Amino acid sequence: MASASPATQASVVAERRNGVRWVVALALGLRQGEALGLKWEHVDLNKGILRIRRNRLRPKYEHGCGNTCGRPTRPRPWRT
């Protein structure tokens, strides 16, 4: 598989929500929670510094069918 040019990568990132955040996270090896906790106030472009100040948990997914699909509302325990 050929790698995409930087221009192509930039256009794909511009189309995605939080695209730049995830490119920075991949380039720097950030964990998902560290990437979710990034704010512009943590970035100093003049000094070239990015400070990781907080970690966020991704909210739990909730589907909107009102539990009519039969999917359990709570995860099942590993042990019974």
Layout of helices and strands:
Blueprint: H1 6-15, H2 19-28, H3 32-36, E1 43-44, E2 49-50
Antiparallel strand pairs: 1-2
What coarse outline follows from CA principal-axis ratios? Answer: extended
- Average pLDDT metric: 76
Total domains:
1
Count of DSSP H/I helices: 3
How many β strands by DSSP? 2
Give start-end ranges of low-pLDDT stretches: none
Please indicate the percent range of residues in DSSP E strands (runs of 2 or more).
5-15%
Amount of helix: 25-40%
What is the chain-wise order of helices and strands?
A: HHHEE
**Major β-sheet profile:** 2 strands, antiparallel
Radius of gyration: 18 Å
What oligomeric assembly is this protein in? single chain
How many angstroms separate the termini?
46 Å
Please state how the strands of the largest beta sheet are arranged side by side.
Answer: 1-2
Category by helix and strand content = mainly alpha
Q: In words, what does this structure look like?
A:
With 80 residues, this protein is mainly α. It has one domain (1-80). Helices cover 31% and strands 5% of the residues. It is built from 3 helices and 2 strands, in the order H-H-H-E-E. Strands 1-2 form a two-stranded antiparallel sheet. The longest helix is centred in the N-terminal third of the chain and has 10 residues, at 6-15. The model has no long low-confidence stretch (mean pLDDT 76).
